[in-house]
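The instructor's notes for this session suggest beginning with a concrete chain rather than abstract definitions. Hand out the sequence below and ask the class to guess, before any prediction is shown, which regions might be ordered.
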Amino acid sequence: MTRTLLLAALLSTLPAAARAQEAAPMPQAPGPQPLQPFVASYQVFHGGHELGQATLQLVHVDGARWRIDLGMQGRGLVRLTGLNLQQSTLFDIDGENFRPLAQSTVKHRFFSNRKTVGVYDWTQHTVRWTGDVRDGHAGPIALQPGDMSGLLIDLAVIRDAQPGRTLDYRFVDDGRVRQHHWLVAPQMESITVGDLGYDAMRANRIQDGGDDTILWVASGVPTPIRILQREDGADATDLRLVEYKGATP
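After discussion, reveal the predicted structure:
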């Protein structure tokens, strides 16, 4: 599914009233780091072994609407392990909130694909999912102000991180609702990407069962320097930034 088709699919899922409302440009509240389009490339590792590449991009659609996309692709037989996925969230900016409007996920695993689409209806304050939805995950789920998809929470961590700060978000994505609690380390860390070095903040989220996710973010860099998922205390999926550049708005 190309990004153009994916955007069309996301837009088509919005309720008619929401499409008419979102078509008109909305003023964006000023923030400490206004969103800027970008394209970032990552190397993907698992258990210390390089498995493929990933691309994270932020696109300005129109007015207050944006789209964030994550694509991961493995090499060779690794493509059978479930590393390959495409995920997009269409969202707007409501005050200081990144407000999801529609979300699409396509996961390629073995010889099957799993595709889901979520529609966040802020007029009814509910979200529903269609497609290859797990039992009990279709919704509707009641929305609360500030609810975000996983990709939007990554953007929020970049925006909000300060040394020693605690960050709290409500994750509503793919039929699941969870509280995300992040702790930003009090000290900066030196992170090297290629020939460039960054003074980065380490933000850590402890998950159920002892798993955790770690983001390294640096002031002035619109994308994470590194994204590490740990399972049972060991490194699992690890995305390491190769390069990033501004995208065409």
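Then share the key points. Residues 65 and 92 are 4 Å apart (CA to CA). The first strand starts at residue 38 and ends at 46.
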